Amino acid sequence: MATVRLGEAGSAALAAGCASPEVVARYRAKLVQVDGSGCQWWTGAVSGRGHGRFWLARGRVLVAHRFAFALANGVAALAAAEVLGHRCDNPLCQRVGPGHVVTSSYVENRREWAARRDVTGSPLGDVRGSRRRARELRDLARTDPALVAADLVRLRRVFGEQPSLW
């Protein structure tokens, strides 16, 4: 994901949102836990790249995991982050920390993506594409998180843990 500069007004709106129990509750209402996954799954709107979209305030939309990062680490830490990367390769993931959403650089994020996209069974290589995959899994998570867990098990059975041939 590219760096998005908030600007003074955006930073103030984000800080107000992080401090607002109503905004935080609205954000957290869109999270579910899926058995067998360490991710916190987003069930709200999804962007063209498969990332969650969160309406922070009237006229202010933010990538959901950026809100999660600001909530966990502060607005200043988000402003200092060049890029946030999903080490779990799940663009719907909202869990901030090792193995999930972490600070990164554009170069490091692209290098990790390139190294993992061709690994057999990697979500980065899903033939549905990132947006369609995210929307389908999000819709399953909205219905019942157990359906997402079943789909992840099914995909592991289909792809196994074998290395790709080429």
UniProtKB/TrEMBL annotation:
- Xref: InterPro entries: His-Me_finger_sf
- Which superkingdom? Bacteria
The name of this protein is HNH endonuclease
Organism of this sequence? Pengzhenrongella frigida
